[in-house]
Amino acid sequence: MKRKKVMAVSSPGGHWVQLLRTSPAFWGHDVHWISTDRGLASKVPCGTFAAVRDATMGEKLGLLVMAFQIALQVIRFKPDVVITTGSAPGYFAIMCGRFFRSRTIWIDSIANAEELSLSGQNARAWADYWLTQWPELARENGPHYLGAIL
Amino acid sequence: MIFVTVGTQRGFDRLIAAVDTWAAKSGAEVYAQTGPTSSRFPHLQCAEFLDPVDFDRRFSEASLVVAHAGMGSVLTALEHGKPLIVMPRKVELGEHRNDHQMATAKKLQGNSAVHIAWNEAELSELLSRHESIIGQSHPAISSHAPLAFLEKLREIIDAPD
User: Fold this and answer.
1) Domain B2-158 carries which CATH code?
2) Cβ B149 vs Cβ A149: under 8 Å
3) What CATH number belongs to A5-145?
4) Contacts with B131 (C-beta within 8 Å, 6 or more apart), sequence order
5) Domain residues of chain B, as ranges?
6) Tens digit of pLDDT for each residue in B32-74?
7) How many helices (H) and strands (E) does chain B have?
8) Which chain B positions have a beta carbon within 8 Å of A26's beta carbon?
9) pTM of this prediction?
10) Nearest-by-CA chain A residue for B72
11) How many other CB atoms are found less than 10 A from the CB of residue B148?
């Protein structure tokens, strides 16, 4: 099997804990992690880590800087696969990844048990694999349910 | 020591104040990561934000965790095998952008390792029983997703271009 470049991206907090729980799925590949909290560098189980600007939905300038920094990371790392558990950094990562023909995987947070998050709904446009962690939210045309991190 | 966390993105004074009131009566030793707040909680040791290393240390030392219904706090408590009390944020009180924490709390109701407080009165009732809650031990869950899900993700990642 070919060794691939996997970019694993998420916000800190709950999204990050969920991303780490999926990490055995890409052990053995070259992994580049991205989040917005530099302190998480010491928490990655393998590979390299980069921090980008933090911003929440609504902070337009911050989001623009974040998107630009993520685009640079994608251009430098040239991932074969981009995988994310959300939210804003993951959204930009699969958007850029799609543009550069990476395989893109959006795993909507397990916290969204009754409806997808806003970024999760928008992620549909860029995700090759658009996944929910709740079977009752799955639809024939996506989001799809393949399991959950718990 | 009881460790309280409401994440780092926004404060949740309703939860912290309820714990503070209980700590004043019981004299329990409580450490709280409060998130951004302008309130003072005289009966707790507080920090607005702990870096990931300090956060892990406080978490490991805790005999009981009290948290908002954020999945980061919930999963970390389950991975550490810590007894856990959660109280969800409510959108109508301006505590979050939407009510996903109410949905999370409803989904967690069947999990015997998690005690749900739907309001401050229930939180203080659960805290008054903290010794028996600490006494019910639950094994830590694995730090990874279930194997079947990991295998499906691995198939997607490993598939040839």
Assistant:
1) 3.40.50.2000
2) yes
3) 3.40.50.2000
4) none
5) 2-158
6) 999 999 999 999 999 999 988 899 999 999 999 999 999 999 9
7) 7, 6
8) 153-154, 157
9) 0.95
10) A14
11) 9
pLDDT band, very low/low/confident/very high, at A1 (cuts 50, 70, 90) = confident
What ipTM goes with this model? Answer: 0.96
CA distances from A1 to A77, A97, B10 (A): 20, 22, 44
Chain B residue whose CA is closest to A43 = B52
| A56 — pLDDT class (breaks 50, 70, 90) | confident
Inter-chain residue contact A25 with B73, CB threshold 8 Å:
no
Interface of B with A in 87-106 (CB under 8 A): 100-101, 103-104, 106
The tokens 């739907």 sit on which residue? B118
Q: Which residues of A touch B149 (CB under 8 A)?
A: 22, 146-149
In eight-state DSSP terms, residue A34 is: E
